[in-house]
C-alpha cells in the first residue's frame, strides 16, 4: 500500500502547484508587466542602457526647403509671396548620448546628445547646391529685439542697418541653409559690439543656418536630465531638467514634461495622449491616441498630431502657459518657438499649414496641405512602449510684420514658410523580432499555467483515489473469539502483544495448506488485525475476532506527537525566515512607518515646528576692522592688519510664509521671513561701533568699466569727484541691517538704472522682515519617500542656478531642518546655501552624544571649500577658468559678479597663503568649525554651529587711478554663525527613534534564535536518542527479525511465507531479513558481534528456520 505521508506530501505539492499556477494565470498581465519593468529600467551596464545610449534604430531626416520665387515683389503688399517646395534632401542620422552621468540620489541620468547627419544623394530629389531664396530672418529678428531698446540705441542700430541690412531676402545654396551655415555682415558686427553694451546682439555662433551647428555638436540640443524609472517606473524616460532647469527661459510658468522619445509610460492606455519634450521647440508637444493597427504582425497603438496639439492657449488651455507676447494675435495652428531662435519670431506648425487655421495658407501661394504627406504619425508597441515607427513632420515659419523706419515698413503681416522636416524612425528587424516574441511568450506562459493547474489537481486526487481503491479490494478474514483467546494468552506471556510484526502485519492461510503470499501481503497495514486458520489445525479450532490492543491508541498518539513536532519545525523555519527578513528590512520598514507620521503636511506633527522654530536662534556677527588701509599699496612694508569686532548677537525669529502645497510631486513652496532683534546683553559691542572695511563698491565698478576706454574715464572722474578711497568707514548698524548710501551706487543709478537694483549697501541690508532675501524655495515633503523630506527641489523655480557649470550649479541638499534618515559614517550630507548659490557638503567626522542621544557629527572639511585643487570633482566651482588656492569659494555670480569669496572663519582649512598675506587672524577649530550634529536614524539636527566668512579679493585695475597700484590680497570683511542646540525634552523624544530601532533588532535576534532552536530541536533529539539508546533499541532498528519477537512454534509457517521465497530452504534465501545467530542464554548477536540480553529468547525455538540456534 501507499504510505500516508507520501499521500500527504504529494497532495500538498499538487495543491501548491495548482494554486501558484492559478495565481499566475489570473495575474499574468501584472507579472508580465513586472518583468518588463525590471528589464527596461535604466541602470549602468545593462543591455537596455547600451541600446539607449547608442540607439540601433533606422533614422532618416528628409528636409524640404521653400524657395521664394517672387521675392522681387516683396515691397508690393498686394502681391502674395509665392513659394516652391524643393527636396527632399535626405540625411541619415547617427545618434549617440555622451557625457552620461548617473544620479542615484534622485534616480535620474544626465547626458549630452550628439548627432551626425550624412547626406544621402541616392534618396534625395534635390542637390546641396540648389539656390534658395528666403526672407532675411536676421533683420526680422533684430527688429523684434529693438522694440525693448532705448531710443538712442535703437537709432544707432538703425543707422548701422542702413549700411549692412538693406536686403529683404538672402540667397544661398541649400547646403548652407541646412547644416553648413553661412556668414553675414550682421554677425560680424555683433562680434564687434561689446556684450556689456548691447547684450541682445550677442550671437553665439559664427554662422547662421536652419540646422547649423547641429551636425556633430553637443551644445545645440542642450544638457538633458531624464528619469531612469528606478524609484517610479512611470517616470522612465521623462524629462526632469533641460539645460540644468526644469522650466524654459521663455516659458517659466510651464514645467518641463514629456518623454524624450525613447521610452513611454507603460502600459499604454487607449484614449490617453502622450507628450514629448522637443529641444528643437524648447517645449512639450502632445500627440493624441488614434486607434490600433497591425505593424508587420505586431499590435501597435497609433498616435497622430491633431489641431488641438498646435492650438493657441485660447483654444487649448493646456497650451496657455506657453503664451508669449504674440500668442493672443496668432491663430491656432502655430506654436511660438522664438526662444529657440534667439528671439527671432519663428513659429512651428505642421507642414504646409496642415490642420492650421486657413488664414495662414491663404496668405501665401504654393501651400498644398496633404494628410498622407504632412500628418504626424507615431506607432508604439503597447506593452513595452517601444517605438515601431515615427513620422514626425514639422515646419518652421517666420513672422514678418510692418515696422516703422525699417525695410519692412510697408509689408503686411504674413507668415513665411522656411523649411520643414520629415523625421522618420523605424525599428530594426532584429529588435522587431524580439518584440514579436512577447505575445508568443505570453501564450506559452498561459499554456504552461493551465498545464500546471491540471497536473496539480491530478496530484491532489490521484493518490487518495489509489488508497480508496486498495482499501475497497482488501480481503479481511475473521477469527473467532475462542481461538483469539487461546492465541493471545501465550503471546502475551511471551511479550508478543507488543510485537510490531504481529501488529503491523496481516497474513492468511488457506484451508488447503499454505496461503497465497500475494494475498497475504495485501493486508500489511490493515487497521483490523484478523487471522484465519484451518478448523483442524492443532492450535485453532474456531474463528474469532481479536480484540483491539492498546497499541492502536498508542500509534494515534504518536501521530499527533509527530505532527506537533513537525509543526514546531515549520514554526522554526518561519521564525528564521521572518528574522532574516527583519534583519535586512527592519530599519527600512520602521522608516516607512515613521515617514507616514512624520511627513511634512499642513496637519502633521512636524508642521508647527517647521513653520516657526520652537528653539531660540542666535545669530552672531563678527566684523573685521581694517586698521591700516593707508598702507595698502604695492611695495608697502606693512601687511593689511585686521582686528575682529563682536560678536554682535541678534535673536532670530524665522517664519515660513506664502506656503503652497503641491500634491502632484509631494513638495511645498514657501518664502522664509526672519526678524532680527539686537541682543545687547549677549553682544560684545554696540551697533554704534565704528568699523573700517574695504570699499568693495568702488572696486567692483572699476573692474566692470575696465574693458572700455569710455568706462575707465567715467570711473576715474566719479572716483575723483566723489572722493573715493580704498576703504570705507561706517557704524556697525550701517554695515549690517540698516545699510548706508554709497555715492557710487547713486551715480550708477543715474547712468544705468536697470543694472543697479538696490539703493543702499549693507551685509544684511534688506534681510530683516524680507520674504525675498532667501528666494522662493520648493522642497519635498517626504509624503512619497521620507528620505526626500526637507530636500530642496527648486530655488527661485530653478533646479540649476547657472552660477556654476555642471553639477556644481545643481540645486540640491537640505535647507537645514530635515536630513535623510538612516545616515552612515561613510557618506556626506549636503546643505543648500541660497546666498552662495550652491550646496555645501558636510563630511562625517566623529560620533558624539547630545543629551544622552548618540549622534553623528558632520563637519565642513577641505572638500567643502575646494575648487579642484584637492578634489577634482569640485573644479567646476572655478568661475571663468580662474581658480584660487583651496579654501575660498567664488560666489561672484551670486553677488552681482563682484569679487566676493566665501571661506570658513579666519581662513580655517584654507591655503596658508591667505593668512600669510595679512595680519590679525587666528583660525581655531573649536571656534571656527562649521558642523551639523544629526541623530543618524531620524536625520534630525541635534546641535548646529559655525558659519562662513565673506572676503573680498582686491587686485589692481589697470588705468584706474585709485586701484592701479594695489596688491593682490584676499581681504576678510565679516563672518556670521548660527548656534542652536535641542533641549533635553526634545532630545528625549528623539531618543525614542533609536530605541525602536534597537527593539526591532532585539526582536529580530529572538526570532532567529527561537527559529534555530525550533528547527534543530527535533532532529537533534532523534539523533541523540538514537546514539544514546540502550542496545535493545539499536537491535530493534538494525535487526528486523528479532524486533518482531516471533515464536517459532506458533508462527513459523507465516513467517516462512512472509520472509522466505522457499520454505524448505534453510540457507540465505530470505527476503529483507538478515541471517541472525542466536546463542541460547546470551541473547541475539548480529553480524557486528554485539550481544544483547533479551527476554524474547523464549520465543525462538530450535526448530525455527529463520535462525541458527546454538
From TrEMBL:
Subcellular location(s) of the protein: Cell membrane
TM spans (from-to): 443-464, 563-583, 991-1018
UniProt-recorded Gene Ontology molecular function terms: scavenger receptor activity
Domain of life from the UniProt record: Eukaryota
Methyltransferase is among the record's keywords: no
UniProt record similarity statement: Belongs to the CD36 family.
Protein name: Uncharacterized protein LOC108043389
Organism: Drosophila rhopaloa
Amino acid at each position: 500500500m501507499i504510505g500516508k505521508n507520501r499521500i500527504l506530501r504529494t497532495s500538498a505539492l499538487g495543491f501548491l502547484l495548482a494554486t501558484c499556477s492559478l495565481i499566475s494565470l489570473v495575474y499574468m498581465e501584472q507579472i508580465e508587466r513586472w518583468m518588463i519593468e525590471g528589464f527596461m529600467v535604466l541602470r549602468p551596464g545593462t543591455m537596455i542602457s547600451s541600446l539607449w545610449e547608442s540607439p540601433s534604430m533606422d533614422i532618416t531626416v528628409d528636409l524640404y526647403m521653400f524657395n521664394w520665387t517672387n521675392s522681387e515683389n516683396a515691397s508690393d503688399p498686394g502681391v502674395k509671396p509665392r513659394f516652391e517646395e524643393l527636396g527632399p534632401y535626405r540625411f541619415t542620422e547617427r545618434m549617440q548620448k555622451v557625457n552620461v552621468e548617473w544620479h542615484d540620489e534622485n534616480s535620474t541620468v544626465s547626458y549630452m546628445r550628439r548627432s551626425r547627419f550624412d547626406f544621402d544623394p541616392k534618396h534625395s530629389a534635390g542637390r546641396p547646391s540648389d539656390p534658395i531664396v528666403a526672407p532675411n530672418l536676421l533683420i526680422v529678428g533684430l527688429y523684434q529685439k529693438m522694440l525693448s531698446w532705448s531710443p538712442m540705441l535703437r537709432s544707432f542700430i538703425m543707422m548701422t542697418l542702413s549700411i549692412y541690412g538693406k536686403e529683404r531676402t538672402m540667397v544661398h545654396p541649400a547646403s548652407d541653409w541646412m547644416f553648413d551655415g553661412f556668414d553675414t555682415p550682421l554677425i560680424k558686427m555683433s562680434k564687434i559690439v561689446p556684450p556689456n553694451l548691447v547684450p541682445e546682439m550677442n550671437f553665439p555662433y559664427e554662422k547662421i543656418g536652419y540646422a547649423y551647428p547641429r551636425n556633430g555638436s553637443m551644445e545645440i540640443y542642450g544638457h538633458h536630465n531624464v528619469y531612469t524609472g528606478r524609484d517610479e517606473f512611470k517616470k522612465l524616460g521623462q524629462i526632469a531638467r533641460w539645460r540644468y532647469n526644469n522650466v524654459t527661459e521663455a516659458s517659466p510658468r510651464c514645467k518641463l514634461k514629456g518623454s524624450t522619445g525613447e521610452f513611454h509610460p507603460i502600459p499604454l492606455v487607449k484614449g490617453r495622449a502622450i507628450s514629448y519634450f522637443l529641444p528643437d521647440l524648447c517645449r512639450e508637444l502632445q500627440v493624441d491616441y488614434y486607434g490600433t493597427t497591425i505593424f508587420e504582425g505586431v499590435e501597435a497603438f497609433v498616435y497622430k498630431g491633431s489641431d488641438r496639439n498646435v492650438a493657441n492657449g485660447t483654444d487649448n488651455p493646456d497650451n496657455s502657459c506657453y503664451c508669449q507676447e504674440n500668442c493672443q494675435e496668432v491663430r491656432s495652428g502655430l506654436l511660438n518657438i522664438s526662444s529657440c531662435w534667439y528671439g527671432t519670431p519663428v513659429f512651428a506648425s505642421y507642414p504646409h499649414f496642415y490642420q492650421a487655421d486657413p488664414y495662414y495658407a491663404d496668405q501665401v501661394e504654393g501651400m498644398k496641405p496633404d494628410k498622407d504627406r504632412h500628418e504626424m504619425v507615431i506607432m508604439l508597441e503597447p506593452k513595452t512602449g517601444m517605438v515601431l515607427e515615427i513620422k514626425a513632420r514639422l515646419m518652421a515659419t517666420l513672422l514678418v510684420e510692418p515696422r516703422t523706419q525699417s525695410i519692412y515698413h510697408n509689408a503686411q503681416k504674413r507668415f513665411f514658410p522656411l523649411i520643414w522636416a520629415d523625421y522618420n524612425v523605424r525599428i530594426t528587424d532584429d529588435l522587431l523580432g524580439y518584440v514579436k516574441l512577447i505575445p508568443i511568450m505570453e501564450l506559452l506562459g498561459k499554456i504552461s499555467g493551465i498545464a500546471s493547474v491540471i497536473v496539480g489537481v491530478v496530484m491532489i486526487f490521484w493518490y487518495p483515489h489509489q488508497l480508496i481503491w486498495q482499501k475497497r479490494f482488501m480481503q479481511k478474514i475473521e477469527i473467532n473469539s475462542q481461538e483469539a483467546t487461546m492465541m493471545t494468552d501465550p503471546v502475551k506471556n511471551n511479550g508478543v502483544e507488543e510485537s510490531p510484526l504481529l501488529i503491523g502485519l496481516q497474513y492468511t492461510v488457506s484451508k488447503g495448506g499454505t496461503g497465497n503470499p500475494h494475498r497475504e501481503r495485501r493486508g500489511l497495514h490493515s487497521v483490523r488485525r484478523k487471522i484465519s486458520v484451518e478448523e483442524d489445525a492443532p492450535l485453532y479450532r474456531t474463528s474469532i475476532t481479536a480484540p483491539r490492543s492498546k497499541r492502536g491508541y498508542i500509534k494515534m498518539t504518536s501521530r499527533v506527537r509527530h505532527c506537533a513536532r513537525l509543526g514546531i519545525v515549520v514554526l522554526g523555519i518561519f521564525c528564521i525566515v521572518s528574522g532574516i527578513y527583519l534583519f535586512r528590512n527592519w530599519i527600512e520598514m520602521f522608516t516607512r512607518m515613521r515617514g507616514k507620521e512624520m511627513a511634512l503636511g499642513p496637519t502633521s506633527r512636524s508642521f508647527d515646528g517647521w513653520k516657526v522654530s520652537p528653539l531660540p536662534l542666535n545669530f552672531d556677527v563678527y566684523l573685521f576692522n581694517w586698521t591700516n588701509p593707508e598702507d595698502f599699496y604695492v611695495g608697502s612694508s606693512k601687511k593689511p592688519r585686521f582686528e575682529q569686532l563682536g560678536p554682535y548677537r541678534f535673536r532670530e525669529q524665522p517664519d515660513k510664509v506664502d506656503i503652497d502645497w503641491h500634491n502632484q510631486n509631494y513638495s511645498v513652496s514657501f518664502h522664509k521671513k526672519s526678524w532680527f532683534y539686537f541682543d545687547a546683553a549677549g553682544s560684545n559691542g554696540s551697533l554704534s561701533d565704528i568699523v573700517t572695511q574695504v570699499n568693495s563698491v568702488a572696486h567692483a565698478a572699476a573692474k566692470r568699466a575696465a574693458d572700455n576706454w569710455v568706462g575707465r574715464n567715467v570711473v576715474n572722474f566719479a572716483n575723483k569727484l566723489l572722493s573715493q578711497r580704498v576703504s570705507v568707514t561706517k557704524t556697525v548698524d550701517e554695515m549690517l541691517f540698516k545699510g548706508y548710501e554709497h555715492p557710487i551706487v547713486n551715480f550708477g543709478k543715474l547712468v544705468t538704472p536697470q543694472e543697479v537694483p538696490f539703493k543702499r549697501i549693507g551685509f544684511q541690508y534688506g534681510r530683516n522682515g524680507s520674504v525675498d532675501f532667501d528666494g522662493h524655495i520648493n522642497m519635498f515633503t517626504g509624503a512619497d519617500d521620507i528620505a526626500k523630506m526637507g530636500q530642496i527641489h527648486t530655488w527661485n523655480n530653478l533646479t540649476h542656478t547657472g552660477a556654476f557649470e555642471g553639477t556644481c550649479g545643481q540645486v540640491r541638499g537640505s535647507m537645514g531642518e530635515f536630513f535623510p534618515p538612516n545616515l552612515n559614517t561613510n557618506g556626506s550630507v549636503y546643505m543648500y546655501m541660497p546666498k552662495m548659490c550652491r550646496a555645501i557638503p558636510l563630511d562625517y567626522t566623529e560620533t558624539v552624544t547630545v543629551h544622552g542621544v548618540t549622534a553623528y557629527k558632520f563637519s565642513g572639511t577641505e572638500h567643502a571649500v575646494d575648487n579642484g585643487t584637492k578634489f577634482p570633482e569640485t573644479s567646476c566651482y572655478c568661475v571663468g577658468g580662474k581658480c584660487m588656492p583651496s579654501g575660498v569659494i567664488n560666489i561672484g555670480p551670486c553677488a552681482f559678479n563682484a569679487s566676493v569669496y566665501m571661506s570658513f572663519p579666519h581662513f580655517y582649512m584654507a591655503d596658508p597663503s591667505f593668512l600669510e598675506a595679512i595680519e590679525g587672524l587666528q583660525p581655531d577649530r573649536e571656534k571656527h568649525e562649521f558642523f551639523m550634529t544629526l541623530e543618524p536614524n531620524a536625520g534630525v539636527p541635534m546641535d548646529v554651529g559655525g558659519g562662513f566668512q565673506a572676503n573680498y579679493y582686491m587686485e589692481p585695475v589697470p588705468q584706474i587711478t585709485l586701484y592701479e597700484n594695489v596688491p593682490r590680497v584676499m581681504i576678510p570683511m565679516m563672518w556670521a554663525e548660527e548656534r542652536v542646540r535641542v533641549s533635553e525634552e526634545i532630545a528625549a523624544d528623539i531618543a525614542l527613534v533609536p530605541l525602536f530601532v534597537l527593539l526591532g533588532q532585539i526582536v529580530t535576534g529572538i526570532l532567529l534564535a527561537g527559529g534555530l532552536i525550533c528547527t534543530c530541536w527535533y532532529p537533534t533529539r532523534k539523533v541523540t536518542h538514537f546514539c544514546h539508546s540502550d542496545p535493545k533499541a539499536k537491535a530493534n532498528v538494525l535487526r528486523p527479525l528479532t524486533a518482531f519477537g516471533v515464536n517459532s512454534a506458533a508462527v513459523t509457517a507465516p513467517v516462512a511465507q512472509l520472509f522466505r521465497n522457499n520454505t524448505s530452504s534453510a540457507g540465505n534465501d530470505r527476503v529483507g531479513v538478515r541471517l541472525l545467530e542466536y546463542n541460547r542464554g546470551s541473547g541475539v548477536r548480529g553480524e557486528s558481534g554485539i550481544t544483547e540480553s533479551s527476554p524474547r529468547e523464549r520465543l525462538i525455538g530450535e526448530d525455527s528456520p529463520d535462525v541458527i540456534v546454538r
